[in-house]
Design goal:
This protein has 192 residues and is an alpha/beta fold. Helix content is 59%, strand content 14%. The chain is built from 8 helices and 5 strands. The chain has helices at 14-25, 32-41, 45-54, 62-74, 91-103, 118-132, 140-163, 176-191; strands at 3-7, 28-31, 82-85, 108-115, 167-171. Strands 2-3-1-4-5 form a 5-stranded parallel β-sheet, with helices on both faces. The longest helix has 24 residues, at 140-163. It is globular, with a radius of gyration of 16 Å. The structure holds BIS(adenosine)-5'-tetraphosphate. The site of BIS(adenosine)-5'-tetraphosphate (B4P) has 26 residues, from α1, α2, α3, α6 and α8.
Length: 192
């Protein structure tokens, strides 16, 4: 199995690049944001709980997300590898993922960290809000909150994987295709 994490702040392009990466490398895409939005659209109990956090720019509680990831993983037993997009977002989630992968006798190979400055992130997300219909996109105050939550709760995840020497920083501004090429260069070197 070849498992990758695409890491970065909200709006850094994780979803955009993940779609291209899973197509090129045949990995299974595990986006906790997409899974949560599906639950919200279907108004499941999990979705109703998640909405109350997402709409305020907060993270969904760890136990909810970790359970969802474990069951998605079990539904894809024959996967050649996973692309984790937007997961893990806390150190507790990272530790849970390590335990899960350990049980399956596999591990994370690479953490690709998309670096984008905050003004550009807000600009992108406010722009996305005009067409996405996403309840967490429309309000600039919610965007600022999401960036603050990222700095406090998610950024420590980069340090967690840095200790394992798995993080590669990628310049996340420029065209989508240029950024995609930078990501592929790193993956190709690692998987040779
Ligand atoms: P996510 O769905 O993961 O999404 P995101 O962080 O908002 O955006 P992403 O980085 O994927 O950016 P995108 O490609 O869309 O999370 C949503 C929410 O769900 C979280 O805030 C949280 O509440 C909850 N959640 C998810 N996972 C969780 C977890 N593990 N634990 C707890 N809670 C969790 O790009 C953004 C915009 O920029 C798009 O409009 C795109 O077109 C544009 N763009 C992309 N690349 C560009 C480029 N190179 N130049 C210009 N624009 C670009």
């Amino acid at each position: 199995m070849f498992n990758l994490i695409l890491f970065g702040p909200p709006g850094s392009g994780k979803g955009t690049q993940s779609d291209k990466l899973v197509e090129k490398y045949g990995l299974v895409h595990l986006s906790t944001g997409n899974l949560l939005r599906k639950e919200m659209a279907e108004k499941t109990p999990l979705g109703i709980e998640a909405r109350s956090f997402i709409d305020k720019g907060q993270l969904v509680p760890d136990e909810v997300v970790i359970g969802m990831v474990d069951s998605y993983f079990d539904q894809h037993k024959d996967a050649p590898g996973f692309l984790f997009d937007g997961y893990p977002r806390t150190v507790a989630q990272a530790a849970a993922l390590d335990r899960l992968l350990d049980l399956k006798k596999t591990s994370i190979e690479l953490v690709l960290f998309l670096q984008v400055d905050e003004d550009e992130l807000i600009r992108r997300l406010v722009h996305r809000g005009k067409t996405s219909g996403r309840s967490d996109d429309t309000d600039e105050a919610v965007q600022r909150k999401r960036q603050e939550v990222y700095r406090n709760e998610t950024l420590p995840v980069a340090a967690y994987y840095d200790k394992q020497e798995k993080v590669v920083n990628i310049h996340g501004t420029g065209t989508v295709d240029d950024i995609f090429r930078s990501l592929c260069d790193v993956i190709d070197k690692k998987s040779k």
